[in-house]
Amino acid sequence: MKLVKKLFFIFVIALIAVLIAYFARVNDTNVTLNLIFTSIKDIQLWLLALLCFLAGVIFSVIAVFLDIIFLSNRERKLKKDLNKLKSELAAARNEKFADIDDSAFSEDAGNLPVPDAGTIENRQN
Questions:
Q1: Could you tell me if 45 and 31 are in contact, meaning their C-beta atoms sit under 8 angstroms apart?
Q2: Angle, nearest 10°, between helix axes 45-99 and 2-26?
Q3: Would 27 disulfide with which of 5, 45, 74, 83, CB 3.0-4.6 Å?
């Protein structure tokens, strides 16, 4: 299966190279590129198209790179907030347990049923 994938990849690359060569052969006319401050005379059309494509790839890579940086910063901030909230939750749980003392249980002890002596002796045997 790996061989088939490699052969398919090589076929796609070769097809792209043939298409670029055909595009270059068909569009071999010279054009003049007028920019804001300067102009470039007698540049071939296929070369201009290739340069525009490469410029688009470069700008796309830069945009994706910046997006990754911003997302990683946001992720780091969210993880920091999550750890802070976890510590606050643990502190709130511990505080609730610390507020409960033994006196609260001793006040209600009078309402609990008292087992008679016979059942206590049966449990010990």
A1: yes
A2: 140
A3: 45
Integer Cα distance of 19 and 46 in angstroms = 12
Helical ranges in the chain per DSSP H: 2-26, 45-99, 102-107, 117-124
Give Cβ neighbours of residue 49 (< 8 Å, ≥ 6 apart): 23, 27
pLDDT confidence of residue 125: 53
| pTM, rounded to two decimals | 0.54
> Residues for the chain: how many in total?
125
pLDDT in tens, 83-110: 999 999 888 888 766 666 545 555 555 5
Burial track 38-54 (b if 16+ CB lie within 10 A, e otherwise): eeeeeeeebeeeeeeee
Per domain, the residue ranges of the chain are 2-100
Q: Any idea what DSSP says for residue 109? A: G
